[in-house]
Design brief:
signal; 12 helices; Lipoprotein; mainly alpha; 3 strands; 3-stranded antiparallel β-sheet; 321 residues
Length: 321
């Protein structure tokens, strides 16, 4: 499943949940009189890996949660700087898609998928929110975001210097582009610490996608068929996921999503059991071949992230199953 496919699934979630919010209150029942299923609660963690390089060079789905958090952090920085720029100039930004954790198709997080499905995930802390600016206990703490902590759409509601709401004035396309450019530049500065090395790593990682697990991946359709999903291959299953999630009602969405995620996790475990050792061996070679850059990354990454947290008022967080 590609990031674009996952994004479509996430949009399906949003549509289903918004529809449900309008038609079925929390704790109410469906039209058939049965309680509407609730998704498994997604969590956040703030714990960093012992080796910062694992955030940049993941080999497993579990390690990719750190990578997702790192990517989302860049999105948070861009959003925060863009919103601050708009407030500074006294205009409102158009509503935007908030930062999100996006999983990696070639590093399936089976534990997360098995628990939450394809469409339910942790919320990224909103820029400028009290949640993102305040400490959350120990470095290894895990948070369950409440509905009140769910990020609002990214707009700039702060008053202008004249005291009138900034939302009373819309920014021109040129003004909005200028602020978005500032946001992108700030995010690029943060990502510049690790992105060149990470791009090379993902290029190397692509070589392990099929070959080590050719026999195991060939057995995937048979496993899925035993679970009631007759598809020719993994891509066909992802198309089925897209279709089922888009068609599911808000009342039935969580059940359908969780069932699909659970089946995929079950059938992909033999595949990942072969791929993960191959990826770890590949990373060891990559670390050795790029030893000087890895030393620089380990020394610079965490301090750069902590500086960005203070400067931009956002918090580095990671999804947790």
């Amino acid at each position: 499943m590609t990031p674009k496919t996952l994004a479509r699934a996430a949009m399906a979630v949003a549509a289903a949940l918004l529809t449900g919010a309008c038609s079925t209150a929390a704790g109410s029942t469906t039209a058939g009189g049965t309680p509407a299923p609730a998704p498994a609660p997604a969590r956040l963690t703030y714990a960093l890996p012992a080796d910062p390089a694992r955030m940049v060079l993941p080999t497993t789905g579990a390690e990719s949660r750190w990578t997702q958090g790192l990517d989302a952090f860049g999105q948070q920085v861009a959003s925060s700087v863009t919103a601050d720029c708009a407030r500074e100039h006294g205009f409102a930004l158009p509503e935007q898609v908030p930062p999100a954790f996006i999983s990696y198709s070639n590093l399936p997080d089976l534990a997360f998928l098995g628990r939450h499905g394809f469409g339910h995930g942790a919320e990224v802390p909103g820029p400028g929110s009290a949640w993102s600016r305040q400490p959350a206990g120990s470095p290894g703490s895990v948070a369950n975001p409440s509905p009140a902590q769910t990020p609002a759409p990214l707009v700039s509601p702060a008053p202008s210097e004249s005291g009138s709401p900034a939302s009373a004035k819309s920014g021109s396309p040129a003004q909005i582009r200028d602020c978005q450019t500032r946001g992108s530049a700030a995010a690029g500065k943060v990502r510049g610490v690790y992105l060149p090395l990470q791009k090379r790593w993902f290029g190397e990682l692509a070589t392990t996608r099929d070959d080590p697990a050719a026999e195991a991946i060939a057995a995937l359709p048979r496993c899925l068929a035993k679970q009631g999903y007759r598809v020719r291959d993994e891509d066909a299953f992802f198309s089925l996921v897209d279709s089922r999630l888009m068609k599911a009602s808000s009342a039935d969405f969580a059940r359908v999503d969780t069932a699909l995620g659970s089946v995929y996790a079950t059938c992909m475990r033999p595949v990942e059991a072969v791929r993960e050792p191959a990826r770890r061996a590949l990373r060891e070679r990559f670390l050795a071949d790029n030893a000087q850059e890895i030393r620089a990354l380990r020394a610079a990454l965490v301090p750069a992230l902590r500086r960005a947290e203070k400067e931009y008022g956002v918090r580095l967080a990671f999804p947790a199953p």
